[in-house]
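Q: Structure tokens for this one, please.
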Amino acid sequence: MRFLMISYPNADAAPPAPEMMQEMGKLVAEEKKKGILIETGGLLPVTMGGARVRSRGGKFTVIDGPFTESKELVAGFAIVEVNSFEEALEASRRFYKVAGDGDGEIRQIV
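A: Here is the predicted structure, written as tokens:
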């Protein structure tokens, strides 16, 4: 089973310390070696651009960024392959143990 794990920006958080980034690198390497982590990535802040797209009734609209910060925006993602939702929760627990406080979402990929 594959799951998309989404993390949201924490407006109160300071930039990550080099030590935390080093620990995150170790976690990513371990999870990839175990075959759990398929892909991971962070996204540039919305203040640096991007676009929102919308398709309605055959009309495709593009709204260029930057956008105002919002808790609904995605800061990063990971795709994991595990045997159950509970294992996806455990993978998320390991991530937040290194990353610290934050909010996220876990959704099964179909």
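A few notes: The chain has one domain: 2-108. The chain has two helices and six strands.
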